[in-house]
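User: Predict the complex with 3-hydroxybutanoyl-coenzyme A.
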Amino acid sequence: MATTLTETETVASAAPVRMDVEDGIAVIRLNQPGKPVNVISAGLVEAMHGILGRLEAGGEGVRAAVIISEKKGTWIAGADIEQFKDFKGPADGETASREGQKLLNRLERLVIPTVAAIDGAALGGGLETALACTYRIATDSPRTKLGLPEVQLGIIPGAGGTARLPRLIGIAASLDLMLTGKQLDGRRARSQGIVDEVVPVPVLLREAKRAANDLASGKLKPKGARRRGSPKGVENLPGLRGFIFRKARQGVVSKTHGLYPAPLRLLEVVERGLDKPLDAALELEAKAFGELAVTQEARSLVHLFFTSTAAKNDPPVPEGTRPKPVDHVAVVGAGFMGAGIAAVSAESGIEVRLKDVKPEAAAKGLKTARDTLIKRAKRKKLKPYQITALTDRVEATAAYTGFHTADVIVEAVFEDVSLKHGVLKEIESHIGADTVLGSNTSTIPIAELAKASARPENVIGLHFFSPVDKMPLLEIITHPGTAPWVTATSHAYGKKIGKTPIVVNDSPGFYANRILSPYMAEAALLLEEGVSIDDLDRAMTRWGYPVGPITLYDEVGLDVAQKAGKIMAAAFADRMKPSQVIDKMVADGRLGRKNGKGFFTYGDDGKKTGADESVYALIGAAPRKQVSREEIQDRLGLMMVNEAVRTLEEGVLHSARDGDVGAVMGIGFPPFRGGPFWYVDTVGAQDVVARLKKLEQAHGSRFAPAKMLLDHAAGGKKFFPEG
Ligand code: 3HC
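Assistant: Here is the predicted structure with 3-hydroxybutanoyl-coenzyme A placed in the model:
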């Protein structure tokens, strides 16, 4: 029999937590009012203490407890990230961490067993809450994900995760999760030993109560019992533990060049805490959490969390504009990009038709799409029947059959206006008036493409980045005649396939390539001046880019870069003059990685083997010049930042928010710098203007600061005044 406690006995109904005693099991239901997800806020902590107090007092006939969420799609999304913005110094973060630890220690030390019944996201403090429970059951829903993503916010787990996870699943496995921020579904979490059982959503509560009962009666023993001591077994063999940490540290340093303090600090906290009693390990954790939470790196990464979430949830369309549901997509052009678009769409439950002119080309594209799907599905440990269901969602065709059912068309044929015009006309004769006509182009103006259309209001740019399954950004480009429902539907499509969409106005290069172009052109100029390939690349990877500009030339393809460079130079002659270097390279048959010949040499396995010294003679510039790393970084970095500000000034961007998201997710602007606009706010517009003026004097007018930058410098303005 269920005894639902009355309002006077329980926390008020608007409280974030409610406890009902049902047949001797306390069912603790989380549902934070007014929030889309449950987060560990001060209110939730207080309410949980109230409940734990009642459980400690006993007297309600409670034998075990279950913690479950009433929010669809989330169990607990972690600490309230919003509160991090209020931390003024390390002490504030440390206190917040201690509060979380205190609550979870109290939960862990209850004499009755507790079961975390997880459906949806259990991330950060959410997973840490689950780790403090005796037993964990997760659902097999695709929305269930467990992980400790704190390093992605520039911090480390602060509510016991650094101590409890290694004690539960071992050192190497827990470091992998904490250093990458990887999120596991229920099944993978079970295979790693993080959860004890996986069940279907509808039976979660029933199974959690059953487990709670069995734990109380002793019929079921928690598998995570070793959590209370330090990790046992092979990882503690002399030398092995040291080896694991050494390897992990090397991995972090080679990936981050020491630019991100959180992962290194995480390793230190875990290593030092392992042999200590839990309370002492938690002390180390709280201190490090407090110090990291107020670093510039953490502030920038938190900024990116909120800007990218807002870009996902808040498209620039008139209020009330409703997107069309996107269940069917047709992709025209089954090359590498088209196949990638087909794969990511199918992976998100969309039925896809992939068309090319010739059946063989369509079949090849289908194979590429399927291979991508299979690779990704295997990583997620999907069952063979699930993989078949996924791959069956893509069908190849050489005709336009089935196009009339498509909600969105993505044309991904070769980058040529007249070819695209012809294809657009053909497509239109096979689709209805309510189909979005998207073009995956990186350079051709959308208004120009729309000229060939009988329904220009349906035409929009959908600029995917390569490789499509890995790159998180979708740049959506509207022309002046694009209908708002088309923008809204494209945005919804982007979100559905797991991309972060930004919407920008039509202009040469749109946003991403527009800001990349002068950066790349400047790199080529520096080469011409006699700076070496390695010095250039190293300077920019040390600034935080994942690869340097010269490597990027080879990756993109020098012919592609040459073509894009000319289009951009025609539009912005004053500052994007293409360098002779690229023309000379292409004339010599050097196309980059794709033909194994570029600025670098490549082995038989396609791996880069080093800078190709013969390039210097070809471009007529021996590496003779010593330009300081800082100057290279300023010439390239500020070139991009300045151009980004111009795009906002001209209205290509709707907001600085989209500019930061686009630069980080589309072209690898260093995340710890938060994006070009956040960077200006961080170092100060006056400082950026002064450095640009110095460069302008030394190298010419292409460095002239954008007007908006000058205004910000003069008026002490910020792009993100709220911080
Ligand atoms: N804090 C504050 N707000 C949060 C939040 C959090 N932890 N998680 C989500 N939100 C907000 C979002 O900003 C968004 O707000 P909006 O409605 O104003 O735009 C809203 O909740 C919904 O979020 P999404 O649009 O992202 O919803 P999805 O369903 O697509 O995704 C999610 C849900 C998977 C939970 C995703 O929001 C997410 O990954 N959240 C962050 C998870 C995270 O990083 N947790 C760690 C926090 S740090 C921590 O826990 C420290 C601890 O160790 C002490």
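Residues 560 and 591 are 8 Å apart (CA to CA).
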